[in-house]
Structure formats: structure tokens, C-alpha cells
């Protein structure tokens, strides 16, 4: 790999790391109830380009907008660089285009949350669904950026011919991961609203059939996360059976380990009553689990040969809050 391609790969991974930080800061905005810090103004903050004498909530929200704007500029730079460096049809070029599309969607979702006041103490079902959608798009965004770096480093393009069973298994795993990630985002919203006193009862309240839907998610999400964490062990075994190369073995067990680790992080989050710092750790590992699964899929689909694996039903995926 020459110096130009090496620099591009490093820049792409830098984008991945920076976007993870932006994602965590966005979760901090939600967890602290600071989403309305700039009012219902967007892209301005409380009607100003730079707010004067901001309070804590406004400072938190404004800083998130600034970091998100930088993330947008970085992805634009990544796309322009990819278009100049790679020929049409190259998988790194396609991944960079996808990253730009998902970044635009990410910005629009963020703007909609503010403009429709789906922030701060809003406990509506619309907000819950919006956060779930936001999480899925975030997964797709960081996955696309990671694939840009992956393919730019010379990894083979995906080949789906003769891999129907494997492809179905990977799609099921990715969809399941997105479902559990979405449920984690909604669960985290419920934890925040309980801690802010918007929902009655607090985080220690008993949960029954009459509980608020956001409170019920505190049972549903861990169940889904546990099921998928266990399913990922089977996925790792079948991935290695299909391709026992060192790269696949490493990614397979990294993926399974992170997913299973999420079960314990989720349990710790519940035991500690969902403190903000624990929610951020849980979210970070959910993002890492998604990235590991995406790269494992890219590795398996890049390998030639006939698939001999037996598909394993995967109900869901990594817990994320």
C-alpha cells in the first residue's frame, strides 16, 4: 500500500474514532436532559450563531452541535478524497458515498428532534421511535466509514455468489443487532426520564404489566440482548468453520466476546441504577460490537468458495443504551 492510500486509511479510521466520540457526547446530551439547551432553534442555538452567557444545558447542547458539524465536514472530506483516489465501482468509494448519505440523514434526524421538540422531558412514543431510528442510522454511518477504511486498505470486495446461507445469517445478525440497539436507545431514554422525574416511580420501581411502555423496555431490552449475546457465540463458531483464517478467527471471537460482555455491562448498568457514565460505556461497547460484526461480515463475504455453514436463527443482537 502506497503512502497516499495509507494516509487515506488512517484518515478513515480517524473518522470512525471521532464519530464514536460524537455519538457518546450526543448520548450525554440526552442523559443530562440538555437536548432543549438551544431551544427549538436549528441550526442556530437559541436564535444565535454563538450563544452568549450560556447555561450548562445550552453549553452541552451547543458543543454537541459543533462537534457534529465537524463530523459532517470530516465525512465530506473523506468522500471527496475517496472520489479522487479510487476508481468508480471500488468498494471503498461506494462505502464513502454511503457514509455521506447516512451522515446527511443523521443531521436531518438531529434537526427534526430539535425542531419538533422531541428532546429534554418529552416522553412521547414519537420521541422513542425517533431515537430508535437515530440509533439504527448511527450504526449504518459508522459501519460505512469503517468499511471505507477496510476496503481502502486492500481488502477484497464482497462476493455474494454461492454464499446464500452465509449472507442470510449475516443479515439476520445485523438486523438483530439493529433491533436490540434500538431497544437499548429507548430503554436509555426511559432511564433518563425516570431519573429526571418525568416518569413516576424512579429507576428502582417494580415493573408490572401496568408500567409505562418506556419502563417495560427495562425488561424487554435485557432479554433481547441476552439472547443475541448467546447467539453470537454460535455465529463465531460457524464463521470460523466457513473460514478458519487468522483474520476471521480473530474478528469472530472479538465479536462474540463483545456481545457477551454487553450482557454483563447491561446487568451492571441495572445494578448501579443506570448512571450516566455507565450508559455511555454500554453505548460505546454496543457501537464496537456493531463495528466488529460489520467487519466480520466483510471478511466472510470477501472470501471465495462455497458456503458449508448451517444458518443459526438469530433473534436479536447487542444491547445498547
TrEMBL record:
It is a multi-pass membrane protein. Pathway: Porphyrin-containing compound metabolism. The chain crosses the membrane at residues 7-28, 62-83, 95-119, 131-154, 166-189, 219-239, 251-271, 277-301. Signal peptide: none annotated. One of its GO terms (molecular function) is oxidoreductase activity. GO terms for cellular component: membrane. InterPro entries: COX15/CtaA_fam, COX15/CtaA_HemeA_synthase. Keywords: Cell membrane, Disulfide bond, Heme biosynthesis, Iron, Membrane, Metal-binding, Oxidoreductase, Transmembrane, Transmembrane helix. One of its GO terms (biological process) is heme A biosynthetic process. It is found in: Membrane. The keyword Disulfide bond applies. It comes from the Bacteria. Pfam families: COX15-CtaA. This is Cytochrome oxidase assembly protein. It comes from Chloroflexus aggregans.
Amino acid at each position: 500500500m502506497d503512502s497516499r492510500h495509507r494516509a487515506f486509511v488512517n484518515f478513515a479510521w480517524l473518522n470512525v474514532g471521532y464519530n464514536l466520540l460524537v455519538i457518546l457526547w450526543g448520548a450525554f446530551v440526552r442523559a443530562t436532559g440538555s437536548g432543549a439547551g438551544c431551544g427549538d432553534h436549528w441550526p442556530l442555538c437559541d436564535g444565535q450563531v454563538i450563544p452568549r452567557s450560556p447555561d450548562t444545558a445550552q453549553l452541552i447542547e451547543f458543543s454537541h452541535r459543533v462537534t457534529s458539524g465537524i463530523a459532517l465536514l470530516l465525512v465530506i472530506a473523506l468522500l471527496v478524497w475517496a472520489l479522487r483516489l479510487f476508481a468508480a465501482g471500488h468498494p471503498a468509494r461506494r462505502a464513502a458515498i454511503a457514509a455521506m448519505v447516512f451522515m446527511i440523514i443523521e443531521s436531518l434526524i438531529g434537526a427534526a428532534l430539535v425542531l419538533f421538540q422531541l428532546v429534554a422531558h418529552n416522553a412521547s412514543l414519537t420521541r422513542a421511535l425517533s431515537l430508535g431510528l437515530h440509533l439504527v442510522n448511527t450504526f449504518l454511518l459508522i459501519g460505512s466509514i469503517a468499511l471505507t477504511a477496510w476496503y481502502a486498505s486492500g481488502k477484497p470486495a464482497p462476493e455474494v455468489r454461492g454464499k446464500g446461507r452465509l449472507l442470510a445469517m449475516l443479515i439476520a445478525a445485523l438486523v438483530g443487532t439493529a433491533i436490540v440497539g434500538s431497544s437499548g436507545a429507548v430503554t436509555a431514554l426511559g432511564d433518563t426520564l425516570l431519573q429526571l422525574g418525568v416518569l413516576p416511580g424512579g429507576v428502582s420501581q417494580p415493573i408490572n404489566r401496568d408500567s409505562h411502555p418506556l419502563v417495560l423496555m427495562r425488561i424487554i431490552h435485557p432479554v433481547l440482548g441476552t439472547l443475541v449475546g448467546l447467539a453470537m457465540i454460535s455465529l463465531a463458531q460457524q464463521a470460523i468453520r466457513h473460514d478458519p483464517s487468522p483474520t476471521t478467527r480473530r474478528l469472530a471471537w472479538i465479536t462474540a466476546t463483545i456481545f457477551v460482555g454487553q450482557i454483563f455491562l447491561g446487568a451492571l448498568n441495572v445494578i448501579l441504577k443506570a448512571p450516566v457514565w455507565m450508559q455511555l460505556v454500554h453505548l460505546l461497547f454496543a457501537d464496537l460490537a456493531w463495528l466488529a460484526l460489520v467487519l466480520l461480515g466483510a471478511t466472510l463475504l470477501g472470501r471465495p468458495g462455497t458456503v458449508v455453514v448451517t444458518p443459526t436463527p438469530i433473534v436479536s443482537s447487542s444491547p445498547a443504551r
